[in-house]
């Protein structure tokens, strides 16, 4: 399988490979995290709005947001608003604020995955690519 990439010229989001490959994240959590990270920096996370735009229900939002909180990509704190009422404030992080436990890192490395993007031996698994460009993943 080849991965075909196009040159990026404008409105796009860059995400660290360590985040994309974080074994603590389900594909649902990763997808929602990508959507949230792609929003403008001053965008406020309101669960109802996220649910509507992402086409997910309340129970799915709770499951995914808990997963993101547990993995350190989302925080939730209560803050008093100007009108005196308390409200939940969410903060989204592109990189986890909670390091992987040594046990998870060990499991990840035993599957042959690099957590820092480098190869473990300094070479490709099967030698040089025989098809495509040098930037294609084979």
Distinctive features:
globular; two-stranded antiparallel sheet; alpha+beta; 138 residues
Could you explain how this protein is built, in words?
- This protein is α+β, with helices and mostly antiparallel strands and 138 residues long.
- Helices cover 33% and strands 10% of the residues.
- The protein contains 5 helices and 2 strands; from the N terminus they run ααααββα.
- The protein has helices spanning 17-20, 27-37, 47-54, 58-71, 102-110; strands at residues 74-80, 86-92.
- Strands 1-2 form a two-stranded antiparallel sheet.
- β1 (74-80) and β2 (86-92) form a beta hairpin.
- α2 packs across α4.
- The longest helix has 14 residues, at 58-71.
- It is globular.
The separation of the N and C termini measures 6 Å
Helix tally? 5
The value of Rg in angstroms is 19 Å
What profile does the largest beta sheet have?
A: 2 strands, antiparallel
Strand content: 5-15%
Unreliable spans: 106-110
Average pLDDT value? 81
Strand count: 2
Q: Percent range for helical residues?
A: 25-40%
Gross morphology is globular
How do the strands line up in the largest sheet? 1-2
Structural class comes to alpha+beta
Order of helices and strands: HHHHEEH
């Amino acid at each position: 399988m080849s991965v075909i990439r196009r040159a990026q010229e404008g409105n796009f989001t860059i995400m660290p490979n360590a985040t994309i490959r974080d074994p603590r994240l389900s594909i649902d959590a990763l997808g929602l995290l990508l959507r949230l990270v792609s929003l403008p920096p001053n965008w406020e996370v309101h669960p109802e709005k996220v649910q509507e735009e992402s086409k997910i229900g309340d129970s799915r939002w709770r499951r995914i947001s808990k997963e993101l909180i547990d993995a350190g990509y989302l925080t939730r704190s209560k803050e008093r608003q100007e009108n005196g009422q308390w409200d939940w404030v969410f903060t989204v992080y592109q990189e986890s604020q909670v390091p992987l436990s040594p046990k998870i890192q060990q499991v990840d490395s035993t599957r042959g995955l690099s957590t820092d993007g480098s190869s473990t031996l300094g070479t490709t698994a099967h030698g040089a690519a025989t098809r495509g460009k040098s930037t294609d993943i084979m």
